Automatic annotation (TrEMBL):
Pfam families: TetR_C_41, TetR_N. Residues 85-192 form the Transcriptional regulator Rv0078-like C-terminal domain. Residues 16-62 form the HTH tetR-type domain. PANTHER family: HTH-TYPE TRANSCRIPTIONAL REGULATOR RUTR (PTHR30055), HTH-TYPE TRANSCRIPTIONAL REGULATOR UIDR (PTHR30055:SF223). Gene3D superfamilies: Tetracycline Repressor, domain 2. This is TetR/AcrR family transcriptional regulator. Keywords: DNA-binding. InterPro entries: Homeodomain-like_sf, HTH-type_TetR-like_transc_reg, HTH_TetR, Rv0078-like_C, Tet_transcr_reg_TetR-rel_C_sf. Transmembrane segments: none annotated. It comes from the Bacteria. It comes from Chenggangzhangella methanolivorans. GO terms for molecular function: DNA-binding transcription factor activity; transcription cis-regulatory region binding. The keyword Repressor does not apply.
Amino acid sequence: MSKTRKEMIAETRAKLLAAGRHAFAEQGYAEASMDDFTASAGLTRGALYHHFGGKTGLFEAVAMQIDDEITERLDALASRAASPWEALVESCVAYVQMALEPEVQRIMFRDGPAVLGDPSSWPNASACIAFVTGQVEACRAAGVLSDVDPEAAARLLNGATSDAAQWIANAKNPEGVSAKAVAALRAMLDGLRRAD
């Protein structure tokens, strides 16, 4: 049975995303050759321009794909947590530690800000803030947090974890920096807890 036009478009887009993702992860944005990754997908530059407008558009789509996967991982982690507090802490820590994963490190935390600009202006930024705000609200409802504005706390936590992840990703010793960042993050989070 022949494929519909919609199926062919989706297949072409998926091939370009996979080829671009591989190239950006392995070589970095600057070194990734459009000709090489379109050829590896069995496609042309024209297909790349048609679907993504160029290399930067493809990179943004890859970054958003990875971000969606990060969100799914954090949602799953939070859903398994024993309490709202544990969900908040472990989600923040997991996000920071993802900067040790080579693909995430290079695409999201090293090349992402250089290519796409300030992460707080990325298309997914408001969803990230909403996720953390929901976690803060759950902690407040459980009586775990001091009286703090949920959105303000979420924005501060988002900024702290994003900056920590970029610090780790660009460090000469990412594992050592990660250990320091996670310890400081846990101490900072503890400072938000309601005193008993």
